[in-house]
Design goal:
single chain; alpha/beta; FAD/NAD(P)-binding domain; seven-stranded mixed sheet; 18 helices; 18 strands; 40% helix; binds flavin-adenine dinucleotide
């Protein structure tokens, strides 16, 4: 082997960087090998459309990261390395075909007044959901941040049981098993109010009728109401640069444009990796793989390295539908039919209603391009005006959910279908914001295939690297026996969006796995 480290981390997504930094802080000699020509994975920003316009290429909303244990212990150092946040008190809204909109702000009374004007029952239901959030979210967020299984998770469950008693546990159980449609139908009356919560489900692969799909939209909708929405001031890459700077300060090494092609296993133990340059690098204490289960089982490990049942589970791991991104620079704020106030919200959902989400989800699963996809419109420069020159704006439109491969009579796949589908997306946007086409000064379109090309973990354009349905969530993510980041190969660990607690900038798996590696090593000494 030509290079010698204590730990090699595969992939410089935020989880890989967090794991590497945590190990480097403890004195490990760490190498991070990243296939792309820059670190960050699905977290980065670039001037995609025009000079001076900074776009978050993939993820934007940093709320999960800012709520993480890693951030709590590293906030000062991250700021020292140039990372600061810009926050919006107007996190999200939904717009409707009749030229109206509903918005959720951190001023609960303002949100309730808007709901009350249309339906007192919606306002009452929203109050009940908010009370439920206040009661259940401490337990749910604590469980979310714990390793699964772990004593911390067991303690969270026990304390939840003690404080909530049986009736509370029944409410929690029903919430965990409900679909987003069941949740909104139970509490809200009008289609418009329901359309404030249900679209969040399709940020993952929770079509409105998927069991277990209510929790994420519920938590996101009310956490945003309580805390607003935060983005990285100056672009997502400021966070990546800060993480890399801290890693290097602790002696860690990052190699970009370096793909790991194999984990070297000797006597059932991971001892290093092979790189696409042909070089072999040794890892004396740990290999930490921030890759997908299919890549781990299919390419990185040999047939004999994994027991049959685990290999089968990893190879059969399923991915959710894809996402397409339209990035735009604008010469004016979005001319919303619902009025200029809407241009001040961080996210605007256009589905418009729950039934439209259901149809779009069914289309994507059947391999069709939805006629009315969910458009998530991100008005990032409204949250962080430094993203564009004076008078200019940056905008992205996430188009969800889409099939991994488009049905096309020609053979060009997404390269062929994306430009025409982007036109259809712009036509839909034009119905809600007449005249938007005239203020677009630059555009970049990223199809689901482009997403995967940029980050191999976004398989088929799945933005969270694997379906979050119950069959591969919690203790089953990515497979039974591996949710605690251990693999059947000694000293080989798996982290990232395909492990518990799943996709999102939560920094959980990287931080938890690294701490677990350090604890185990300390015990071994
Ligand atoms: C369009 C989009 C929008 C999103 N919006 C949000 C949002 O607003 N908020 C939020 O919280 N989350 C969002 N997400 C989800 C979130 O970005 C991801 O879940 C998260 O970034 C995953 O981080 P990670 O560290 O686990 O892996 P990734 O960021 O996927 O990084 C994995 C890295 O590993 C590298 N890699 C893979 N295989 C190899 C190999 N063999 N050798 C070397 N390197 C390898 C890849 O190149 C990549 O850099 C979004 C995702 C997308 C795609």
């Amino acid at each position: 082997m030509t290079g010698r480290y204590d730990a090699v981390v595969i992939g410089a997504g935020h989880n890989g960087l967090v794991a590497a930094l945590t190990l480097a802080e403890a004195g490990y000699r760490v190498l991070v090998a990243e296939a792309a020509d820059q670190p960050g994975g699905a977290l980065r920003s670039a001037e995609l459309t025009q000079p001076g316009y900074v776009h978050d290429v993939f993820a934007t909303n940093l709320n999960l990261f800012l709520g993480s244990a890693f951030y709590a212990s590293h906030a000062g150092a991250l700021e020292h390395h140039g990372f600061t946040v810009a926050a919006s008190a107007r996190p999200y809204a939904s717009a409707f075909p009749d030229g109206t909109a509903l918005g959720v702000t951190t001023d609960r009374d303002e949100t309730l007044a808007e709901l009350e004007a249309a339906s007192p029952r919606d306002a009452a239901g929203w109050r009940e959901l908010d009370a439920l959030f206040e009661r259940l979210s401490p337990v749910l967020f604590r469980a979310y941040a714990a390793r699964a299984p772990s004593w911390e998770l067991a303690r969270a469950g026990l304390e939840a049981f003690k404080s909530a008693r049986t009736s509370g546990m029944v409410t929690l159980g029903r919430l965990l098993l409900s679909s987003s449609r069941e949740l909104v139908d139970e509490y809200l009356e009008t289609d418009k109010a329901k359309a404030l919560i249900a679209p969040w489900g399709l940020h993952l692969d929770f079509g409105p009728d998927v069991a277990g799909g209510a929790v994420f939209p519920f938590l996101e909708a009310f956490a945003d109401q309580h805390g607003g929405m935060a983005v990285a001031k100056g672009g997502a890459s400021t966070l990546v640069r800060a993480l890399v700077g801290m890693l290097q300060e602790h002696g860690g090494e990052l190699r970009t444009s370096t793909r790991v092609t194999r984990v070297v296993v000797r006597d059932g133990r991971a001892v290093g990796v092979e790189l696409d340059t042909g070089e072999r690098v040794s890892a004396d204490r740990a290999v930490v793989a921030g890759v997908t289960p299919t890549a781990l089982a299919g390419e990185l490990l040999g047939q004999a390295d994994l027991p049959g049942p685990i290999r089968r589970a990893l190879s059969g791991y399923r991915y959710g539908p894809g996402t397409m991104m339209l990035h735009m620079s604008l010469s004016a704020p979005v001319p919303w039919a619902a009025g200029e106030r809407l241009a001040s919200f961080a996210y605007v959902h256009l589905a418009p209603y729950v039934d439209d989400l259901a149809r779009a989800y069914a289309d994507a699963l059947a391999g069709r391009l939805p006629a009315e996809p969910l458009l998530v419109v991100g008005q990032t420069s409204a949250v962080d005006p430094t993203r564009a020159p004076d008078g200019g704006h940056t905008l992205w439109v996430q188009v969800r959910p889409l099939p991994a491969t488009p049905p096309t009579r020609r053979r060009g796949g997404w390269a062929d279908a994306a430009p025409r589908y982007a036109e259809r997306v712009m036509q839909k946007l034009e119905r809600y914001a007449p005249g938007i086409g005239e203020i677009v000064t630059g555009m970049a379109v990223l199809s689901p295939a482009d997403l995967e090309r940029e980050d191999a973990n976004l398989v088929g354009g799945d933005s969270v690297s694997g379906s979050m349905h119950l069959r591969q969530n919690f203790l089953l993510r990515p497979a039974w026996g591996m949710s605690g980041y251990r693999t059947p190969v000694r000293d080989l660990w798996m982290i990232g969006a395909a492990t518990w607690p799943g996709g999102g900038l939560n920094a959980v798996s990287g931080y938890q796995a690294a701490q677990h590696i350090l604890r185990r090593r300390r015990r071994a000494w």
